[in-house]
Design goal:
3 strands, hpI Integrase, Chain A, 300 residues, three-stranded antiparallel β-sheet, mainly alpha
């Protein structure tokens, strides 16, 4: 079987059997298609360790980040392990493929003061009643107030909200459902948007949608629109040219830990499968503490 055909069969397995998230499936498909292209149309049984090493070497020459190389190594190992189980190959060439170690980079986090100013400004803008301003304020408050992923925000339906309790039911990675809390400011922003902004956007729609957050034409909002919003309003504050909604998730987690929240509680709120993933935010808090000390202490 050609490598390209095996790749498509594997991607179908990821979607239908393993039920991975669309973003993960897309990444696997992209990486393995790149491998098929780099191998020059080899059949899957002809791919050996040297072919895989050459593929990663070419990626380093293009300047791919360590995290990208590590992801591609993981994709190759998962793919060839599956291929051996399916008896498409007799030997797994990826067993000795070593992924480069990922360098630790701390996530970008906005300060409490910056977030307060940002959200206050959007609350004032929303008071004029423009439906997009009301929507954008609700988006920012909910992303920061609950720490949800952009995909979880875009997937919210009206029935997922409990405004009385201040919670939202979201569908996270691996189709895992969880309930996340959000504070009074996010609730107020949601109520204002649902009562005054969303009905205007619904009237523009061609078909009904139960989505909470709508685009300018009344359809369910897409991640790109949310990315553009966050990049426009948060990028100048944190001094980053490219930044997305995940920065608000990072910020929410860091501020929770700064405020004394239990690490496992933060893990549950964020929907992390591993506590180790959540622990990165303890390093952010430590770095911020150390920076404050260096600036303020006369003997630092």
């Amino acid at each position: 079987m050609e490598l390209a055909a095996a790749t498509e069969a594997f991607v179908d397995h990821l979607e239908r059997v393993r039920r991975l998230s669309p973003a993960t499936v897309k990444a696997y498909r992209s990486d393995l298609r790149d491998l098929a292209s780099a191998s020059g149309g080899l059949p899957i049984e002809a791919v050996d360790l040297e072919v895989l090493r050459d593929w990663l070497w070419r990626a380093t020459q293009r300047g791919d980040a360590r995290s990208t190389l590590a992801r591609r190594s993981a994709a190759a190992r998962s793919f060839f392990s599956w291929a051996k189980e399916q008896e498409l190959i007799s030997h797994d060439p990826s067993l000795r493929l070593v992924a480069p170690k990922k360098g630790r980079t701390l996530p970008t986090v906005a300060s409490r003061e910056a977030m307060s100013s940002l959200l206050d400004a959007h609350r004032e803008a929303a008071q004029e009643g423009d439906p997009i301003a009301l929507r954008d304020h609700a988006i920012l408050e909910l992303l920061y107030g609950s720490g949800v992923r952009v995909s979880e925000l875009c997937g919210l339906d009206i029935d997922d909200l409990d405004l009385d309790r201040g919670t939202a039911r979201v569908l996270g990675k691996g189709a895992k459902e969880r309930v996340v809390p959000y504070g009074a400011p996010a609730r107020d922003a949601l109520v204002a948007y649902l009562h005054r902004g969303r009905p205007v956007l619904v009237a523009r729609a061609r078909t009904f949608t139960p989505a909470v957050v709508l685009g300018s034409r009344g359809a369910r909002i897409g991640p790109r629109t949310v990315y553009e919003l966050v990049a426009r309003v948060l990028g100048p504050i944190v001094g980053a040219e490219t930044i997305g909604p995940h920065a608000l998730r990072h910020t929410a987690a860091t501020h929770l830990l700064d405020g004394g929240a239990d690490l496992r509680a933060v893990q549950e709120i964020l929907g992390h499968a591993s506590l180790g993933t959540t622990q990165i935010y303890t390093h952010v808090s430590t770095e911020r503490l150390a920076a404050t000390y260096r600036l303020a202490h006369p003997r630092a």
